[in-house]
Amino acid sequence: MNASQSVPQIFDRALLAQRLRRARTSGPATFLLDRVTEDLLDRLAATMRPFPRVADLATPEPALAAALAATDVSRSVTRLAMLEDAGSPVCNTLVGDLENLPFVPESFELAVSALALQWVNDLPGALIQIRRMLAPDGLFLACMIGGQSLQELRSAFAEAEADIRGGVSPRVAPFADLRDLGALLQRAGFALPVTDSDTVTVRYDSMFGLMADLRAMGATNILTQRSRQFLRRDVLMRAAEIYAHRFADADGRLRATFEILWLSGWAPHESQQKPLKPGSAQVRLSDVLPVRNYDGKE
Question: Is the model's pTM score more than 0.70?
Fold first, then answer.
């Protein structure tokens, strides 16, 4: 039994490739990817060090790899993509799968990924592979869609289907939770793991504008347990009605929430800071903090 057979297949990754290809053909919506690309470059600039060999892992469009290739951060940028990039390549591009990385150990000093890890069936396994491809003291920096994303759309469809059909089918993916990512990074062998989140609120005239953008991102339903039936018009219109009633601002425009989870970690190296061993402290806590008497006086 191979790894793909032993891991639950939550996402249909072949369908994901089809959806991304369709989005690219009709004109992708990149506003969210553009934002996180800028944020990732800002975070990377804070490290104040070069990374000779850089890998961009499955970021949906080549803009991040192109931006890295245009800076003095790296001498070499390799992009792993689900689809062939159109036009002249700005870096070495390989078509492959984020769940089965084609790189030998210690191939890169930096690995980045933007808005791709949320579609991975085996996230712990992918993180272990990323850790292995990094040279000692190499950095992994990525962002992915979080579990609080599209809560408005999820709620509207669930209520609409319950009202009309008496049941609910999965339509929005069960994305990762921030609290789990730090533990996953440690489990994968990363040193100094850091996680945080950012919330992006986008506003629309109607729920249909949001759905059009999701289609143009290639981010429509790819759950293996999705309903194979066509979405009924009465369910769709009821969901739009609920969305407009419950999630409209004072000006009538509708909110859509995207949670962006950020994660970073380093391949271990002897030069990195390490926690002190228990009992090795040289100063007592009472020597640096004020001690209060029972009456509250110092």
Answer: yes
Structural domains counted in the chain: 1
Does 166 fall in a domain? no
**176 within domain boundaries:** yes
**Closest Cα partner for 187 from 83, 265, 72, 281?**
265
The string of pLDDT tens digits covering residues 120-169 is 999 999 999 999 999 999 999 999 999 889 999 999 998 998 888 766 66
The answer as to whether 41 is a domain residue is: yes
What distance in Å separates the CA atoms of residue 33 and residue 40, rounded to the nearest whole number? Answer: 10
Q: Domain range spanning residue 30? A: 3-147+172-203+254-288
Element (H, E) at 212: helix 207-216
36-50, 79-93, 144-158: least confident range: 79-93
φ and ψ at residue 56, rounded to 5 degrees? -100, 115
